[in-house]
Amino acid sequence: MAFRPIRRFGDPILRMAAEPVTEFDQRLRTIVADLLDTVDAPGRAGVAAPQIGVGVRAFSYNVDGEIGYVINPELVELSQKTQDGVEACLSLPGLGFDTRRAQHAVVRGVDVDNEPVTVSGSGLMARCLQHETDHLDGIVYIQRLDPRTRREAYRQVRDQDWFWQP
């Protein structure tokens, strides 16, 4: 349908919990199509609906050639084993910070026909599932950083030309 622009950190929609989807209609199909079109670009692992300005619980993913989406996702399993690595976000372009995540994650939700969907993965897929679910809860990954790194991240964000300020 449409490649949508990404909302930048500072936009209030990124700090609000998204609403669960209750109507499985053409509007939802359009949102999902837009999420899939928007994530289908080089360097994009996932896009959450709030990042395209829509406050509903849905995200798309594009990891290692696997492209899909989940509506009303819930993280139902996180491994005790963790992974550390640089995480980035389309809403914070040009920045990346070491972030600890579970090594393996499982998300359950539904598709556009309200049929059950389960997505699981390790490594980058696990990171993506956690990152995008966080977006739906109004959490941007830099909020998960240790206090010292988080202060540095916020300083770097404020120095960016793209930083949105009311």
From TrEMBL:
Pfam family of the protein (one)? Pep_deformylase
- Reaction catalysis annotation: N-terminal N-formyl-L-methionyl-[peptide] + H2O = N-terminal L-methionyl-[peptide] + formate
Q: Which residues form the active site?
A: E132
CDD domains noted in UniProt: Pep_deformylase (cd00487)
Q: Note the Gene3D superfamilies from the entry.
A: Peptide deformylase (3.90.45.10)
UniProt keywords (A-Z) are: Hydrolase, Iron, Metal-binding, Protein biosynthesis
User: Mind listing the GO molecular function terms for this protein?
Assistant: metal ion binding; peptide deformylase activity
Highest rank taxon of the organism: Bacteria
The record's free-text note on cofactor binding: Binds 1 Fe(2+) ion.
Which InterPro entries would you find in this protein's record?
A: Peptide_deformylase, Peptide_deformylase_sf
What EC number is given for this enzyme?
A: 3.5.1.88
Positions of Fe cation binding: C89, H131, H135
Any one GO BP annotation for this protein? translation
- Metal-binding is among the record's keywords: yes
Cofactor(s) recorded in Swiss-Prot or TrEMBL? Fe(2+)
Q: What does this protein do?
A: Removes the formyl group from the N-terminal Met of newly synthesized proteins. Requires at least a dipeptide for an efficient rate of reaction. N-terminal L-methionine is a prerequisite for activity but the enzyme has broad specificity at other positions.
Family membership noted in the UniProt record = Belongs to the polypeptide deformylase family.
NCBIfam families given in the database record: pept_deformyl, PRK00150.1-3
Q: What is this protein called?
A: Peptide deformylase
